[in-house]
User: Fold these one by one.
Assistant:
Number 1:
Amino acid sequence: MASWTVLEEQTVWISPRATSFTVACDACARSVAGDGYGAAVVAGTLPPDAVRGWLVCARGHQLRVERDGR
Ligand SMILES: [Zn+2]
């Protein structure tokens, strides 16, 4: 099982044509569970020709964005 001591890299997948999207930051979802799911939502954009990118949530966690191109 994954350890709590290291924040594992998060990868979120978006649909092939998505250029703007919202995802939930797992790290926030765990640390702010009392505030509800909405507190962990991150909005992002990705140019249509980009296959991956990065998001930083409101609390500074990095999320890798991968476009599901298959
Ligand atoms: Zn976060």
Note: The chain has a mean pLDDT of 84.
Number 2:
Amino acid sequence: MLPAICGQGVSEVPCGDCTACCTSSQFVHIAPDENETLSHVPPELRFPAPRMPRGHVVLGYDQSGHCPLLGGAGCSIYAHRPRTCRTYDCRVFVATGLEITEESQVSIARRAKRWRFSFPEELDRVRHEAVRAAAAFLKEHQGLLPEDLAPRTVTQVAVLAVGIHDLFLDRDAETTRLRPVAPTAQAVRSEVIRRRRP
Ligand code: SF4
């Protein structure tokens, strides 16, 4: 999940025949550098992305909440699908303990609840604890981040929590093992700004 969130890979989610995220009234963002994707999306399906610079677009959805590129056999442009779709990972909700509340996304919520995690190593459990702590922190400190960096949806909170969970870990001086810690609000704010505004 982390490489996908950091823009260094794609999510490898065993979706099976689930198309919940393609049928949940979601606007799919496409960035201007996604030339391969854009060449497979008809211009009439693209709309300027709100609050984003010129060139960023979104795919809308039909009256049933379905992506217009979803066909009977799944995504009709699967090999060229947007980065948003390549990196979407509904396991993020179970990982963070956050629940989707949007009525239109009930099928994603239902599917996500079925995921189960295992912790082969103690470190896996500790990191999961840090992810949950980061999510709880972000929920508790709404308004901490500048407006342009603040997560607006549950999905964005969950993704940010995974992305900054390392701030909720520290190395024990004696054992050198990672252990959960509680950073200050100011420390989290500064680090998020540093990472997001290079
Ligand atoms: S572009 Fe493809 S993968 Fe993305 S939402 Fe539409 S149908 Fe689903």
Note: The first strand starts at residue 28 and ends at 30.
